[in-house]
Every structure is written in structure tokens, then in C-alpha cells.
Design brief:
4 domains; Transcription Regulator spoIIAA; 12 helices; six-stranded mixed beta sheet; globular; six-stranded antiparallel beta sheet; Pdz3 Domain; alpha/beta
């Protein structure tokens, strides 16, 4: 909706004005009237959800009718009000002119005709209103004769971040606040004279959403995040996460996995160990992304190239160790596989193909296919897919891996504030392993894309799930790059499993638990299905039966 000023002027007492008020509050308010000439320019955006009403001294037979105009008896002269629950108690007075309201192209002539009846009673000025028929639209006010107020480069970066959230964020109530009003208040009140001040303002803005997964990434963090989905990275080969607190401790960062053959793996660091410090800096209040930067080479001021050292303080059970690791290029192959012989008679003994999937990087689906084909050539007749401590990764890779195991059915429903938005399913064209028995191992470290895969295989009755309830991250984030190289990780949707289960903060519930002593490493897995005397023993029937 646009309002433009004209050339003639009248006294303030007879001039037309317009206001915006909150339909949830008392409409009988007396806001301060601001003359146009007291402002350089004013640009205001609101989202409309109600009607327009024009208030005039003159009344007609049916006061209160609002199509396309509404004459209402009242104490105010020549005013129209826009009902909205986004802006409230604001009224602006034009010092000149008559009003013309245009609702749409088709009704423009009706608007002109309707105004012929009263335009002679209003001084000469042209104000044009374009009212969109959509529920949400944009409202802007501009005075043509006055120069616009310039925005600084820092303001523009802030606005870029604001618009990204406005466009992409899943919760269109923005945690129950007026997102437009926040923008206006921030531009008016938050200091943004330096880049660091702008970053602080963006972080403060995101904090109002109360969503830990929607976060700001400085340029070096954004680069580090992207590198984690590539096939190789310079670092020490660790996948880290926040501790679950199951051992009574919440300090430090927990090791989810150590890349096979990488510096951390060779030093004896394994899943479940806790990193207490990196280069003598405590990790107690250190974020995952800060820690990742310190461990990899893509960190602030280009510290930590290949061949440089990083000092770690690591707790393994009751033992605390101080280690010096040398960064090197680590291949991020997300798949390990092996063949497990199970009790049987000679050559007819059943063979199980075990596949450990540690992350969903860009190599994941291809590596899973390769592992299946290799195991098939060795005559396996069943598969175990281990997703324990897999914290997720690229959403599309999760979908592609589900298609490997499913010959038909829904994989996941993507939902927003209005309900189901997208449906991902499969026609079986990529299903290369849709018939053999399949067991999937999960635990509390199974999160995000791993949960999508596990939920799809369970709800389509393709696999038996064993272990413990998964992490419960039922939201999907997309990463957006800003113009200065920084970025935003934004929650853009939530998802439901094929059975329409919302797993957020609940997780995917397995069909059966695993023995408490069941190992996480692939070397020990075979022993638990071969040796009936083992404390972790799990026979074939228990592994593949519901």
C-alpha cells in the first residue's frame, strides 16, 4: 500500500489523516497526530488482516459499510483507519489533499466514482492507496518531495539477516512478537557503527526467537560449517557434540566419533570421551562451532594449518589425559562395513553385512551403495545399519539413503506453521537393497537426518529398530550466506515421520532395547552375534524380529 503527497495544502484542522490501530485493543484511542512536514521520510511496513474504513464528518444511510469506502459518524475529520494487530496507536496526518483509495485494478473505477461524491469537500491533494487482497501485504509511506534517509552498510547487513529470517523461518509468529516492529526498534536503538556491533545486533535478534538451532555464523564459522559436509578437512578427525548428562556431568564436549586412522583415533580418543579443554581454553562454555574451528585449520587468523599442533585435555572415564595432536588432512569417509558370520552349518552359515554410517556428508549415499554392493558380492543375506552417534548432516543425503532401502512409500513429511508443506517419497527406482532383512541400531546420539532415515525405515516396516530413543531433533535447518561471507543457520521446517509422528524432543522409539554392554565399534559387533556366552549376545531372531 502506498501513499504519496501532493502539492496543495490546507489548515491542519481540516486536513485528512490516517491511522493504524490494534484490533485487539480499545479502538477509542487518542494518539498523537504527527504532521507530514515534521518527518524527512517514513517507510512503514505492516501486514494487514482486516479492512479499511474511511471516517468523515459526512454520514450516509449505512454508516460502517466498508466496500470500497466507509463513511462513519465521528469526531475526527477526513480520516481512515487500517485495522491491524502488527502496528498500534499510530496516526499520521496529511497537511494537504483529498484521499483516493484503490483496492484493486478492477475496483479502481468504483473508487474514483465513489470519491466524486465527496472530493469537493476536501482540499486538493492526491493520496493513492493500493490495498492487496492477500492476508499479508506490505504497507509503505513515502513523501515524494523529501529525500530518503540513507542506511549505512552495517544497517543493510542487519536488514539482510532480518529479511532472511522473515522469509525462511518456520514460525511465522516469530515466537509471538511483531517481527516488523523488532526491525524498526533495532535500527533505531541498536548500535551498528562497526561490523562487530552489527553481528551483536543480529545475535540479539535471533535470541528473541528462543530457538537454539537458528544461529548466526561469522564468516570463519560459516566456512567451517560448510567444510564439515565435504569429503576431507584438515583437523584431527573428531565429531563432537554436547554431553547428554547421563553420567551426571554436563561439562565439556563429548566425542561422538573419531575418524578411523585420523590423529584423534590414533591417540586413543574414542566415542564417549569428553574434551575438557582445547589449547588450554576450557570447553565448558565453548560452543560446538567454536571448538570445531579450533580443531580444524579454518579458524580465525588462519591459525592451525596442516602440520600444526593442537593441545587437548581429554577425559576417558575417570582418566584425564593431556594430548598433543598434529593436524592433518582427514578423509571423511562416513561408512565402515564388515561381514559377520553367525552360528550355522558350514557354507550355509548365515552372513550379516554390518554397515556403520557416521555422518551424512556429500559422500554418504554413494558410500552406502558401495558398501552394500561389496557385501552382496560376499553373499550376505541380511544387513545391520548402525546409526548410533550419527548426529546428522545433509538432509538430501538422508533422503537418498532411505531410497536405497525402500521400494515404495513416504520417507518424511515436511511441515510448517500451516501443516504439511512437502512430501518426500520413493517409487523404488533407487532401491538396491529393499528385500533383505534389515536391523537399524540407534541411540541418543542419533539425530536429525539419522532420525529421518530411522523413522522412515521403521514406519514403512522395512527395518527393526534396536537401541534407545533417539535425540529428538525434529526440525530442519537451512544455511544462508550473507553478503559479507557470514551466514545464518535457520530453522525452516519441522518434519513428521511417515506415521505422522512429531519426534521433536521425543525421538524415534526403537522396537527393542539393546543389551547394556552392546559395543559401539564395528570390530566388537560381530562377537556379540557369534558368541552366545557373551554378555552382549544377540541372536539372529532377536536382531531381525519385531
Amino acid at each position: 500500500m502506498e501513499v504519496f503527497g501532493g502539492s496543495a495544502s490546507t489548515s491542519a484542522s481540516l486536513s485528512p489523516s490516517f491511522g493504524v490501530y490494534d484490533v485487539h485493543r480499545n479502538a477509542n484511542f487518542s494518539p498523537k497526530v504527527l504532521p507530514w512536514n515534521s518527518l524527512f521520510v517514513m517507510t512503514i511496513e505492516i501486514r494487514l488482516r482486516s479492512s479499511l474504513s474511511f471516517i468523515s464528518k459526512k454520514s450516509i444511510d449505512r454508516p460502517g459499510r466498508c466496500y470500497p469506502f466507509c463513511y462513519i459518524k465521528g469526531d475526527y475529520t477526513h480520516r481512515f483507519f487500517i485495522q491491524s494487530d502488527w502496528m498500534q496507536n499510530k496516526r499520521y496526518i496529511s497537511q494537504r489533499g483529498w484521499l483516493l483509495i484503490r483496492k484493486s485494478t478492477s475496483s479502481f473505477q468504483n473508487a474514483v466514482k465513489g470519491f466524486e461524491n465527496f472530493k469537493n469537500t476536501i482540499p486538493v491533494l492526491f493520496v493513492r492507496l493500493v490495498v492487496g487482497v492477500l492476508l499479508f501485504t506490505t504497507f509503505s509511506i513515502a513523501v515524494s518531495q523529501t529525500p530518503s534517509l540513507a542506511l549505512s552498510e552495517e544497517n543493510l547487513l542487519f536488514l539482510e539477516a532480518w529479511r532472511t529470517i522473515d522469509r525462511a523461518y518456520v514460525d511465522k509468529t516469530f515466537n509471538g512478537q511483531s517481527w516488523f516492529r523488532y526491525r524498526e526498534n533495532a535500527l533505531r536503538n541498536e548500535p551498528m557503527t562497526t561490523r562487530e556491533e552489527t553481528y551483536v545486533a543480529i545475535r540479539k535478534m535471533l535470541a528473541t526467537l528462543d530457538d537454539p538451532f537458528t544461529r548466526f555464523l561469522e564468516p570463519e564459522k560459516f566456512k567451517s560449517l560448510r567444510s564439515g559436509t565435504q569429503s576431507a578437512v584438515t583437523g584431527v578427525g573428531l565429531s563432537i557434540g554436547y554431553p547428554t548428562g547421563n553420567d551426571g556431568s554436563t561439562a565439556g564436549l563429548v566425542v561422538i566419533s573419531a575418524a578411523q586412522g585420523g590423529p584423534a583415533n590414533r591417540a586413543g580418543i574414542s566415542s564417549g570421551d569428553v574434551i575438557l579443554a582445547i589449547d588450554d581454553t576450557s570447553t565448558e562454555v565453548m560452543g560446538i562451532y567454536d571448538a570445531a574451528e579450533r580443531l580444524q585449520k579454518e579458524i580465525m587468523k588462519c591459525r592451525g594449518p596442516e602440520g600444526s599442533a593442537v593441545e587437548l585435555t581429554v577425559r576417558s572415564g575417570p582418566l584425564i589425559r593431556h594430548l598433543s595432536l598434529t593436524r592433518e588432512k582427514v578423509s571423511l569417509n562416513p561408512v565402515k562395513s564388515r561381514i559377520c558370520e553367525t552360528p550355522g552349518l558350514g557354507k550355509d552359515a548365515p552372513r550379516i553385512g554390518y554397515i556403520k554410517l557416521t555422518s551424512f556428508n556429500q559422500n554418504a549415499s554413494g558410500a552406502v551403495k558401495e558398501a552394500i554392493e561389496t557385501l552382496r558380492r560376499n553373499n550376505v543375506d541380511a544387513f545391520v545399519l548402525d546409526l548410533r552417534d550419527n548426529s546428522g548432516g545433509l538432509f538430501p543425503e538422508g533422503i537418498e539413503i532411505a531410497k536405497i532401502w525402500l521400494d515404495k512409500g513416504v520417507i518424511v513429511y515436511i511441515c510448517d506453521s500451516h501443516g504439511v508443506r512437502d512430501i518426500y517419497d520413493t517409487d523404488g527406482s533407487n532401491a538396491i537393497a529393499a528385500s533383505e532383512p534389515l536391523a537399524v541400531l540407534v541411540n541418543k546420539g542419533t539425530a536429525s537426518a539419522s532420525e529421518i532415515l530411522a523413522g522412515a525405515l521403521k514406519d514403512n516396516k522395512r527395518a527393526v529398530l534396536l537401541g534407545e530413543p533417539t535425540f529428538g531433533k525434529g526440525k530442519i535447518q537451512s544455511v544462508f550466506q550473507l553478503s559479507d561471507g557470514s551466514g545464518l543457520a535457520v530453522t525452516v521446517a519441522r518434519y513428521e515421520t511417515p506415521a505422522h509422528t512429531d519426534i521433536d524432543k521425543v525421538g524415534v522409539i526403537p522396537d527393542h532395547p539393546l543389551p547394556a554392554s552392546f559395543p559401539k565399534d564395528d570390530e566388537s559387533f560381530c562377537g556379540c552375534i557369534q558368541n552366545s556366552a557373551s554378555a552382549c549376545y544377540l541372536n539372529r531372531i532377536e536382531l531381525f524380529s519385531r
